Amino acid sequence: MLSQETRDIVKSTAPVLAEHGTTITKVFYQNLFNAHPELLNIFNHANQAQGRQQAALANAIYAAAVHIDNLENILPSVVQIANKHVSLGIKPEHYPIVGEFLLKAIKEVLGDAATAEILTAWEEAYGVIAEAFIGVEANMYKEAREQENGWNFFKPFTVVLKKQESDIITSFYLKPADGSNVPEFKPGQYISLRVLIPGEEYTMIRQYSLSQATRPDEFRISVKREADNDPNGVVSVFLHKQIHEGDTVEVSAPAGEFLLDVTQTTPLAFISAGVGITPMMSMLETVATRTPDRPTVFLHAARNEALAAFRDDVEKHAANMNNAKYKMFYSSEANGIITREVLETYVDTTGDAYVCGPVSFMEAMIRELRTLGMTEGQIHYEFFGPAMQLDNK
After folding, report:
1. How many whole angstroms separate alpha carbon 5 and alpha carbon 22?
2. Is 137 a residue of the active site?
3. DSSP classification of residue 210
4. Which secondary structure element, helix H or strand E, spans residue 269, and what is its range?
């Protein structure tokens, strides 16, 4: 339990963190990896290079400072981040290392302004926050381990089928290399793949949404191939070009909080763009097989028909439902954008909307859905990568 004095000191640093947070986290990561290069086996190098991880951590630290009196206010963020941590294999022993280098970075960036009093208060606050994460993650690890066919950390899987879905998206069907089954997963969850790419010093981990409804013996992920020279594309290019049927990859247990509530029968709208369609496929198939009477709309945007994946699958699932509408939008064609008018025509605002795609697309869709009267609790969305601040006002 933090003293009132400690909470007051931490809260007083919020304006400074708002101004210098990203600088602090850049210094933190640089010093952390210099001292502990083995942690590069866990962290996404591309997110580091682009500054997304630094910005996400800065936002998290600032939120902790603002809400230090009521840390339960940031519990949804804690759970979301904890899911990512579990899918990466973060362990309790990593937290003291992070705390040490975070405090050193605060001191290095703020200099004399980071008094002993401030550093002590943040050390105490970090201890409480780290303890919360460790506790949440311990429960997640326990649940993942003890569920039927469950495990912790990474397990070898064999690529049993590799199927091209569009000019840039390929599906990989994965089965446990030991011949066992897989745990049941919730529609919208993701798994992590860990690979060691020839010529690279460290392993790389990426999260991919499960793109079909749960099966007893396999996972399916559907991966967009990024450009060869895109830092974000190192793993996707490797999977597309060098991973073949019969090859083995390491896989984590399913995780994630972007979930379809399968107990409801209220209207649904799935709104996606690009590879953001992948979690929607798991959700749509689940609705089609479990609650086919549920009113459902599926709207998807792509640059053109050649880049749009799963059109035939969407048609098949919709045909098995009693109240489903779907439409594909191609920006290369006239009227090829999902506008407010489109949403007004298709979306029943008494239900729930699930949004996934590029950040700018999500911002636009969420903003328009709110304009149409949908509340924050009705709109669900998923980031690919570290959580960012959405501008949807």
Report:
1. 26
2. yes
3. B
4. strand 268-273
Please indicate whether residue 25 or residue 45 has the higher confidence score (pLDDT).
25
For residues 345, 346, 350 and 356, what is the CA-based torsion angle, rounded to 10 degrees? -130
pLDDT of residue 390: 45
* pLDDT per residue as tens digits for the range 330-339: 988 878 899 9
Domain count, the chain: 3
Q: Look at residue 341 and tell me whether its pLDDT is greater than 80.
A: yes
Based on the fold, state whether residues 164 and 242 are members of the same structural domain.
yes
Task: Indicate which residue of 29, 62, 126, 137 is catalytic.
Answer: 137
30 and 137 share one domain:
yes
Angle between helices 4-12 and 116-146 (to 10 degrees): 100
- Read off the pLDDT band of 236 (50, 70, 90): very high
Quick one: 142 and 160 in the same domain? Answer: no
Phi-psi region of 120 (alpha: psi -120 to 50; beta: other; left: phi over 0): alpha
For the record, the structure tokens of 236 come out as 């996707």
Annotated catalytic residue, options 29, 95, 354, 381:
95
Same domain, 159 and 111: no
Looking at the structure, tell me whether residues 127 and 14 fall in a common domain.
yes
What angle do the packed helices 277-290 and 311-319 form, to 10 degrees? 20
Checking if the pLDDT of 48 tops 70, the result is no
In a domain, 393, yes or no: no
Q: Which residue has the tokens 């636009």?
A: 364
- Does the annotation flag 141 for ligand binding? no
Of 146, 177, 211, at which residue does a domain stop? Answer: 146
Ligand-binding site membership of 330 (annotated): no
Q: How many Å separate Cα 150 from the centre of its chain?
A: 21
Domain membership flag for residue 258 = no
Question: In the chain, pLDDT over 90 holds for what percent of residues?
Answer: 63
Q: At what angle are helices 116-146 and 94-110 packed, to 10 degrees?
A: 150
Look up 19 and say whether it is catalytic: no
207 carries a ligand binding annotation:
yes
Full domain range(s) for residue 217: 155-251
